[in-house]
Amino acid sequence: AAMSRKGRKLLVDSLTRSAKHFNQSEVECLVNLFDTLVARAKSHFAGAGFDRTVFRDTLHSAFGMTDDVVLDRVFSIFDRDNNGCISVVEWVEGLAVLLRGTLEEKIKYCFAIYDLNGDGYISREEMFQMLKNSLLIQPADEEPDEGIKDLVEIALKKMDYDHDGKLSFADFEEAVRDEKLLLEAFGPCLPDIK
Question: Buried b vs exposed e over 117-129: b needs ≥16 C-beta within 10 Å?
């Protein structure tokens, strides 16, 4: 649905304020890209947004993200109203965190990705699931799952500050603040720096 020039300017101004990591011309570019993706989608959302398939294809081609579990989790985080469609606001504000978020925003984002069932904890099973998908090659002489179980135990030893056998947001945040490399401990869910 074509938007009037004035309506578009109001949208861009509003998004420039809400997605505070982008300037006005960057927001305009992202809105234009959004329109292109919506046109390509030809979906039943009638110009309001695009679906999971278009979103996944876009993240794959733009950022090389390939892990199905991660892509589905990223979609869920972007799709804040949970209607199966990424709106222009969800698109721009989601990309603001994904591409330019503060450490605090990225900690919340990564934690939400890894908390597969949304219960506020990253359990052993969730760690196992994420690591199983993100590891490419297993040593031939070892049962593949054993190596992953060992990694889960190492992660818990390093990150489970309250020793309850699972990672709360507080555990995850403290671990990442101590060692920034742990931000993506359970699989790549942020684009490369480039």
Answer: eeeebbbbebbbb
Give the DSSP H/E element, type plus range, for residue 107: helix 103-114
pTM of the shown model: 0.87
Whether 180 and 103 have beta carbons less than 8 Å apart is answered as: yes
- 112 contacts 169 by C-beta, under 8 angstroms: no
Q: How far apart are CA 123 and CA 132, in angstroms?
A: 14
Does 138 score more than 60 pLDDT? no
Which residue, 90, 98, 22, 28, is CA-closest to 62? Answer: 98
Q: 50 has which bridge partners?
A: 86
**Domains of the chain, earliest start first:** 5-100 (1.10.238.10), 103-182 (1.10.238.10)
pLDDT over threshold 60, residue 134: yes
